[in-house]
């Protein structure tokens, strides 16, 4: 299968005729005190895609930045694709709508363009008045804090998302961190099919079979961590030596095109047909990450970058849940 699967259009098709901007601002790990300004600066720079989540803990600040941009006339609400995600503690149908409504209030919007199940992991419920966002640990103050799971069928959670969709609170619903088997099972009973899958994907983790399956099922894909290891180094989940941006072939292609290594890697992601949501806390990087549509990669260049695949997953609950939260919980094996 050819890796060159789309042209340089700035958005990808989503079921129902919508268009998802190919480049968005990922809000994970942007400090709360920076988030409002970064969202405003991103919209000012031309971004029309914001990727948020309850668990990131900065939706209220993102809402401030979005509201300020709208009030300044930088764009209209319908121009901006806003994604959020249902956290693991809210999988029970009774908790889905309250969680969604909290994200809507924090983001200062009347509807979401996309609401995703963040992980196929159901954790014991933590009331919002007790702690928000609840995080991974059931009780961080316990003598031995651990992650506590519970049994909620994905079908039950999905049914509650379908109700929110039918109520007009979300335009599209989807999943994140799901593999082919879980998606195939979901499609067997879903009344509203998943519109988007969000997954970790970069040249060290190409996930080509999963992308091909989603194309077959008309499910759009968004790649988080599209530049690879960078966001995970401060967490101790990767090292500086893991940077795909330092790969000689990436640097060579960047030199040939007069682009930065980051632009080359992001262009690779876009040209594969995925949306990409690079995170940055540096305003000067916003324009660089968005400037991907005045050049393209050749078939050989695409294949060279794809050849870096080493199945390297940085965001793996099968590793970090055991190390950080006292619970072995693999989901990809």
SSE blueprint and pairings:
Layout: E1 11-14, E2 18-21, E3 25-26, H1 32-45, E4 49-51, H2 59-71, E5 81-86, H3 93-107, E6 114-117, H4 154-166, E7 173-176, H5 180-189, E8 196-200, H6 208-216, E9 220-224, H7 248-257, H8 261-271, E10 275-276, H9 283-290, H10 299-306, H11 317-325
Parallel strand pairs: 3-4, 4-5, 5-6, 6-7, 7-8, 8-9, 9-10
Antiparallel strand pairs: 1-2
Record keyword descriptors for this entry.
disordered N terminus; alpha/beta; 333 residues; 10 strands
Give an overview in words.
- With 333 residues, the protein is α/β, with parallel strands linked by helices.
- It has a single domain, classed as TIM Barrel, CATH 3.20.20.100.
- Helices cover 36% and strands 12% of the residues.
- It is built from eleven helices and ten strands.
- Strands 3-4-5-6-7-8-9-10 form an eight-stranded parallel β-sheet.
- Helix 5 (180-189) links the parallel strand 7 (173-176) and strand 8 (196-200).
- Helix 3 (93-107) crosses helix 4 and helix 7 (248-257) crosses helix 8.
- The radius of gyration is 19 Å and the shape is globular.
- The model is unreliable at 1-8 (pLDDT under 50).
């Amino acid at each position: 299968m050819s890796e060159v699967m789309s042209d340089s259009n700035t958005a990808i098709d989503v079921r129902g005729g919508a268009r998802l901007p190919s480049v968005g601002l990922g809000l994970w790990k942007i400090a709360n005190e920076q988030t409002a300004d970064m969202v405003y600066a991103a919209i000012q720079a031309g971004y029309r895609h914001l990727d948020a989540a309850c668990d990131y803990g900065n939706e209220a600040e993102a809402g401030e930045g979005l509201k300020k941009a709208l009030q300044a006339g930088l764009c209209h609400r319908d121009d901006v694709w806003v994604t959020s995600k249902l956290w693991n503690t809210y999988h029970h149908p009774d908790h889905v709508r309250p969680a969604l409504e909290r994200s809507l209030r924090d983001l200062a919007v009347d509807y979401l363009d996309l609401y995703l199940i963040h992980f196929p992991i159901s954790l014991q419920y933590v009331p919002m008045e007790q702690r928000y966002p609840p995080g991974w640990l059931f009780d961080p103050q316990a003598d031995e804090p651990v992650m506590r799971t519970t049994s909620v069928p994905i079908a039950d959670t999905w049914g509650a998302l379908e109700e929110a969709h039918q109520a007009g609170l979300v335009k599209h619903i989807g999943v994140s961190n799901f593999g082919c088997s879980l998606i195939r099972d979901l499609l067997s009973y879903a009344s509203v099919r998943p519109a988007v899958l969000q997954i970790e994907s970069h040249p060290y983790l190409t996930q080509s079979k999963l992308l091909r399956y989603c194309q077959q099922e008309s499910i759009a894909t968004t790649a988080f961590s599209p530049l690879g290891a960078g966001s995970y180094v401060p967490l101790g989940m990767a090292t500086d030596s893991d940077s795909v941006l330092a790969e000689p072939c990436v640097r060579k292609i960047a030199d040939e095109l007069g682009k930065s290594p980051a632009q080359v890697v992001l262009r690779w992601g876009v040209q594969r047909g995925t949306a990409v949501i690079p995170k940055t806390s540096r305003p000067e990087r916003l324009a660089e990450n968005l400037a991907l549509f005045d050049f393209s990669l050749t078939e050989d260049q695409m294949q060279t970058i794809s050849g870096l695949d080493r199945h390297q997953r940085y965001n793996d609950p099968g590793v970090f849940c055991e190390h950080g939260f006292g619970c072995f919980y693999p989901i990809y094996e």
